[in-house]
Amino acid sequence: xxxxxxxxxxxxxxxxxxxxxxxxxxxxxxDADPLRPLLAQCALGNRQAFxxxxxxxxxxxxxxAMRFMxxxxxxxxxxxxxFIRIWYNASRYEAHLAAPMTWMINITRNLAIDQLRKRxxxxxxxxxxxxxxxxxxxxxxxxxxxxxxxxxxxxxDTLDGMQRQSITVAYFQGLSCxxxxxxxxxxxxxxxxxxxRGMERLRRCLES
Amino acid sequence: xxxxxxxxxxxxxxDYAIGLMPATARRRFDALxxxxxxxxxxxxxxxxxxxxxxxxxxxxxxxxxVWAVINARIEPQVLHVPAQKPxxxxxxxxxxxxxxxxxxxxxxxxxxxTSVEYNATLVAADQQPALHIQAFSDHLQIEPLALAAVEPxxxxxxxxxxxxxKPISLGLVPAAGKGRIQLSTEQQALLTAPLTLAVSLExxxxxxxxxxxxxxxxxxxxxxx
Lengths: 208, 225
Prior knowledge:
Distance between the termini of chain A: 43 Å
Radius of gyration of chain B: 29 Å
Largest sheet of chain A: none
Oligomer: heterodimer
Order of helices and strands of chain B: HHHHHEEEEEEHEEE
Number of strands of chain A: 0
Mean pLDDT of chain B: 79
CATH class of the largest domain in chain B: Mainly Beta
Number of strands of chain B: 9
Strand content of chain A: under 5%
CATH superfamily of the largest domain in chain A: RNA polymerase sigma factor, region 2, helix turn helix motif
Largest interface: A-B, 64 and 44 residues
Strand order of the largest sheet of chain B: 6-3-2-1-9
């Protein structure tokens, strides 16, 4: 338990440090990452390492799942599935492609988006509509609260309002281009070009 | 579509990373990713950058029952740890328990003799019998049942593991499988009590360290006849 606590705090300390630009130095970042050996141990079937990993990153992933699902029970389901997937796919983690946290966030996000898409396709039964809470913070609140998210967000700030909003909404809701157009009440062509130009500008900013 | 244009590749990877692609396009992109390492790296950059969108989200404590469910769901999984050490320790425990019980029985029932004293059937990890061993007072007679083929640069080494002790080499299993292993006086003395036998895969000529260095392929208990 001690070793676990140490690791957890080591990780926390690291994750609070301002992140170097992911674009330019993904390798050095991952080299020092204490999550990496944990994932490697999981790949070997080490359940102790898995539990340590879980204790370390589950609050963070839970926050992510909650942001997507907006409901406690659904967020927990996504979190559960995410960890099952992390356990069984640990051997497929490729350190040169992504930091461990990014890999795990992506797993969580993909599962959340799958759920969101399924739920969008299912017509709601009577009364269910009322049972649904708000869709979470509006895109604008979201942007404000996430303004301080280090490297990417300082780059996001260089984008036009609509470019920024379409990228953020798309990321957190898993909408296709046409759904996004509907959501933002804007022509499809404009949405496509906001995204494309926004991502290109983002990229130039991240690379500089 | 020409996927080689840099601008297009970038744009596609970006779309994929955000999640804008419809299902069919996503599947096509998945297929492209499989053989295109550069594209995977490109995508990795986007994913890394976009993941920082989640950086400001608050952490949320997780109720304990979530872990209980996860733990239960991975429970049936058989571990595939190549755990050399725990294995030996486990064997030692087994050998100790077994040794004590049989030493008492044998001590009561048998006087030492020169004919066949003990025998053992060593089994592979899947519990299939692999090797039959008869212990005489000064040698072992080895009878292969189903031995795995061994590369010419390797040898199989036979070990005896005394209760609570380290493995002690009894010598190499004859390359042909069938044959005898002559026992020194010390080794004969070892075989006075029922023990665990194990066969490990070693470099040609046997373990350079005096302790097993390779995987244990077969193991079994010496039992009195």
